[in-house]
């Protein structure tokens, strides 16, 4: 097999594992495939794989124009990846078509169908690049769970969800940002969008532990809460890989970091090491947390569908299976209830999800407040530099649908700051 064909065959296998078996790019079976390749080939693999997933609804719409018969899973995935390369990434069609035909022979598909359809698509690639999808083209589970969005919000999502993410970074303090070696689009005195997104993790100041990568939306809530004093006892119940905890640790606050996942705790520890933070770390299921311990501020960055991060995690729409909303919703509510017991009177729970879907956000807060009349919604106190982003907070709740600020993409996110009054 020639090199281009071998790499593309591995891309096909990765996409197939995600589509059919709900793998993520972090699964060991996928890591094993990727690790066989050289560094420059790995970035090619990620480029094609991620964009094939991001743009698969566009590619399927193109396929419908050219192929009327029902496609088998392998055919569909091979064609989605080839269309992404030819139409959207503008690769040389000759190499893509040849490799796809050879792969189709090995997978015992119809090479003639692959060849003819890709040649016809390549001929019209300039026009096809502008193909538009609309809300009705999105997965049924998503449409059903977002009926409460306004027409404008739906439009905003359709226009944004398939775009490449931008990279937002957060510095330990103002001085570190002021000394940063590169240009940056500032979002606050300690944060901004990287202009040069290449080789992020080999930048000198990153290795020195001056900053971490954290989406603007997920940075915004903690950056806009005033903590009354330095002696509060914080618990980050779902802390890994660490962004929110780093925000607190960089303010010298006393935070206990917990996460249920052993694998993610390892990532958290390596991040803490680089950033030179040394907090208490626990590896417990938050649902079984020791009820005798009390805290003044509990952060629940809850497990969720992660739909707000679809640009970074495009497998959410690509894979065959919808999120397990029943399981997630009961875990989210149990986490809130548990936090309520662990909290001192006068303390706060900051409930957050990288989702804007009603059942993971507003419904959870409303249910919790119905069952706990000793809690109310506390406000965010926008810093002066945050006033230009005030549209992100409505009725004291922060909500974003994947959006753009300062010409850069930000994730969809939700945050509610709940206060225990008695
Ligand atoms: C959205 S992520 C947290 C992101 C993190 N706060 C940050 O800023 O980087 C959700 C986390 O919840 C953890 N988790 C899931 N179920 C849990 C449970 N029952 N108890 C504690 N942590 C749990 C997952 O392992 C995952 O790391």
Number of domains: 2
| pLDDT averaged over residues | 96
Q: Given this structure, which CATH class of the largest domain is correct? A: Alpha Beta
- Strand fraction: 15-25%
Strand tally is 15
Provide the list of bound ligands, each named once: S-adenosylmethionine
How many helices? The count is: 18
CATH architecture of the largest domain: 3-Layer(aba) Sandwich
The coarse silhouette is globular
Structural overview:
It is a single chain. The chain has 422 residues and is of the alpha/beta class. It folds into two domains: 3-128, Orthogonal Bundle (N-utilizing Substance Protein B Homolog, Chain A); 168-420, Rossmann fold (3-Layer(aba) Sandwich). The protein is 44% helix and 17% strand. The chain is built from 18 helices and 15 strands. The strands form three sheets. Strands 5, 6, 7, 8, 9, 10, 11, 12 and 15 form a nine-stranded mixed beta sheet that branches. It is globular, with a radius of gyration of 23 Å. The N and C termini lie far apart (70 Å). The model has no long low-confidence stretch (mean pLDDT 96).
């Amino acid at each position: 097999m020639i090199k281009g064909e071998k790499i593309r065959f591995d891309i096909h296998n990765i996409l197939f594992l995600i589509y059919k078996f709900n793998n993520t790019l972090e699964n060991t079976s996928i890591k094993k495939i990727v690790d066989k390749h050289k560094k420059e080939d790995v970035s090619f693999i990620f480029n094609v794989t991620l964009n094939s997933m991001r743009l698969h609804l566009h590619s399927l719409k193109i396929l419908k124009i050219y192929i009327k018969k029902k496609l088998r899973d392998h055919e569909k995935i091979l064609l989605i990846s080839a269309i992404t390369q030819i139409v959207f990434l503008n690769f040389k069609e000759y190499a893509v078509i040849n490799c796809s035909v050879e792969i189709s022979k090995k997978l015992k598909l119809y090479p003639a169908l692959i060849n003819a359809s890709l040649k016809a698509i390549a001929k019209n690639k300039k026009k096809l690049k502008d193909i538009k999808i609309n809300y009705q083209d999105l997965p049924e589970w998503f449409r059903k769970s977002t009926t409460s969005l306004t027409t404008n919000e739906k439009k905003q999502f359709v226009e944004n969800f398939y775009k490449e993410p931008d990279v937002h970074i957060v510095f330990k303090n103002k001085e570190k940002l002021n000394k940063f070696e590169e240009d940056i689009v500032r979002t606050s005195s300690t944060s901004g969008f990287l202009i040069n997104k290449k080789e992020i993790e080999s930048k000198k100041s990153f290795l020195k532990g001056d900053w971490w990568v954290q989406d603007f939306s997920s940075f915004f809530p903690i950056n806009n809460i005033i903590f009354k004093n330095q002696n509060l006892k914080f618990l980050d119940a779902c802390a890994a890989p660490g962004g929110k905890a780093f925000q607190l640790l960089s303010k010298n606050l006393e935070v206990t970091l917990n996460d249920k996942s052993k694998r993610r705790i390892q990532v958290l520890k390596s991040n803490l090491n680089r950033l030179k933070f040394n907090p208490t770390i626990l590896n417990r299921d938050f649902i079984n947390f020791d009820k005798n311990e009390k805290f003044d501020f509990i952060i629940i960055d809850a497990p969720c569908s992660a739909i707000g991060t679809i640009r970074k995690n495009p497998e959410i729409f690509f894979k065959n299976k919808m999120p397990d909303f029943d399981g997630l919703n009961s875990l989210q509510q149990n986490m809130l209830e548990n936090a309520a017991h662990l909290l001192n009177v006068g303390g706060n729970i900051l409930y957050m999800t990288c989702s804007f879907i009603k059942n993971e956000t507003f419904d959870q807060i409303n249910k919790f407040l119905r069952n706990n009349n000793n809690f109310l919604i506390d406000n965010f106190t926008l810093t002066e530099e945050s006033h230009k982003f005030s549209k992100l907070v409505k009725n004291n709740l922060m909500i974003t649908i994947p959006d753009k600020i300062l010409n850069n993409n930000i994730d969809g996110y939700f945050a509610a700051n709940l206060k225990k009054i008695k």
